[in-house]
Structure formats: structure tokens, C-alpha cells
Design goal:
By secondary structure, the chain is mainly α. It has eleven helices and two strands.
């Protein structure tokens, strides 16, 4: 039997593994400053030289950024896969809104399903806080700006992704957060303008989704998340068709005016 040499990992490599796990699971987020070197060494139970070596390895990997005299930060580039120019481009094209909703349909249904199955007590606390913030926006009955309401809506869906304990789903939602927030703001404006009941429908849907996740009803949570996106798609399609009808009518009017 061939036996390979058992190589013991360097202490710095073990530190790297732990920090990488924290980044993957969302405990450490893009742009977040790491605790001071002394504090981290105490938390990990290692020497400061070992910690410095681990930090250098993660900087080389592009996971951390060291700022002279300013500490160590999780790389900002881990937080978004969409540049600002691309966000603007997507926002300016209506067809991309449809595409994003189609993408959200699958993504958020799965997030809701796994969140209902896996949410821990701290996850539920975070979800409760995000839900309360969204409800506080709704309670202002139109006095909160669309941007505030859209941000609260997006944070609620992000909290669900965090509770799913699926790192791929979580980081996909995080990378799309700015795009998601802008999309929600645009959707809210269009929906409220078209249907008076849209606001109440969104309130009811978010409440039902929240309760299903908190009660661990995975299949129900997945169904409600799908129905929520379906409703948004339906209303926005209706708005698009109405806009197209008005444009046709305006073209006829102009044609008749010019004989």
C-alpha cells in the first residue's frame, strides 16, 4: 500500500480557511473592516505573526485589502458583479426588467424554501427586523419615498437569502443587491400608478411570505414567493401593454392632425 506523506497545515493556512468560511457564509461582508490585529489574534487563539502571515496570503488572493494605517478590509470587489455603467444600462432598457423578474422568480422561490427549512434563531431575528422595517415603510402610507420603500423591500429579500444558508444563493443576491433595489423601486412606481390595490397586495404577500418562513413551511414559502413575482410580472406587463396602446393612439392622433 502506498502511503503519502501527511503534511501538517501551517497555522496561517488554518486562519485563512476560517476567514474564507466567514466570507462565504456572509459573516464578513464586502467592504467590511476586520477587527484590529490584536483582537483577531486573541479570537483565533494565535500569535500575531501567524495572523499577519494569513492576512498577507488573503491579500495576495484578492480577498482582503490592506490600507496603510487603516487596517484590513474585505475586498469591495466581492460585493458586486455588476459595474455602475452596466447597472445604468440595464436600468435604461425595459426588457432587462422582465429578464430580472424571470431570474428572481427561480432565485427567490428557492431562497424562501431553504430559509423556511434552515433558518436559525439569529436568522429569524434578522428577518423579523427586516420585515419590521418594511412594515414601517408601508405604515407611512405613501409618505416614505419609493427609494426608501424599495431599499427596505430589497433588504427583506436579502435577509431571506441569508437565512437560506446556501452560499451560492446568498452571494448571487448580494451581487445583485443594487440592481435588485433599483428594479424594486422602478416596479413600485409602475405598479402603484396602474393599480390602486397593488400596495395592499404587496403588503399581504410579504406578510404571508414572512409568516411561512418563520413557521418553517418550506413548500408554502416557495409557492408564495413565486406568486409574489408572478403578480409583479402580471401588473408590469399590463402597464407595458397600456403604454403601448397609448403610444399607438398618440401616433394616430398626430397622423390625423397632419392629414
Amino acid at each position: 500500500m502506498d502511503v503519502g506523506v501527511v503534511r501538517q497545515k501551517r497555522l496561517s493556512d488554518k486562519i485563512v480557511e476560517q476567514v474564507e468560511t466567514m466570507i462565504l457564509e456572509g459573516t464578513l461582508q464586502a467592504g467590511e473592516k476586520l477587527p484590529a490585529e490584536r483582537v483577531m489574534a486573541e479570537e483565533f487563539g494565535v500569535s500575531r505573526p501567524s495572523l499577519r502571515e494569513a492576512v498577507q496570503k488573503m491579500v495576495a488572493k484578492g480577498l482582503l485589502v490592506s490600507r496603510q494605517g487603516g487596517g484590513n478590509y474585505v475586498s469591495e470587489s466581492l460585493g458586486s458583479s455588476f459595474s455602475d455603467p452596466l447597472l445604468g444600462l440595464l436600468e435604461a432598457h425595459p426588457e432587462s426588467h422582465r429578464d430580472l423578474l424571470e431570474f428572481r422568480h427561480t432565485l427567490e422561490a428557492d431562497c424562501a424554501y431553504y430559509a423556511a427549512l434552515r433558518a436559525t434563531a439569529p436568522d429569524r431575528e434578522q428577518l423579523q427586523q427586516a420585515f419590521d422595517e418594511l412594515q414601517a415603510c408601508y405604515a407611512q402610507e405613501g409618505k416614505a419615498s419609493r427609494a426608501e420603500e424599495g431599499a427596505a423591500d430589497a433588504r427583506f429579500h436579502l435577509a431571506i437569502a441569508e437565512a437560506s444558508h446556501n452560499v451560492i444563493l446568498l452571494h448571487t443576491i448580494r451581487c445583485l443587491f443594487d440592481l435588485l433595489k433599483r428594479n424594486v423601486v422602478t416596479n413600485i412606481g409602475g405598479m402603484y400608478a396602474l393599480r390602486d390595490e397593488s400596495r395592499n397586495m404587496l403588503i399581504q404577500q410579504h406578510k404571508a411570505l414572512f409568516e411561512a418562513i418563520m413557521q418553517g413551511q418550506a413548500d408554502t414559502a416557495k409557492r408564495i414567493a413565486s406568486e409574489h413575482i408572478n403578480y409583479v410580472q402580471e401588473v408590469l406587463q399590463e402597464r407595458l401593454e397600456e403604454s403601448q396602446r397609448q403610444a399607438r393612439a398618440l401616433r394616430r392622433e398626430r397622423r390625423e392632425a397632419f392629414g
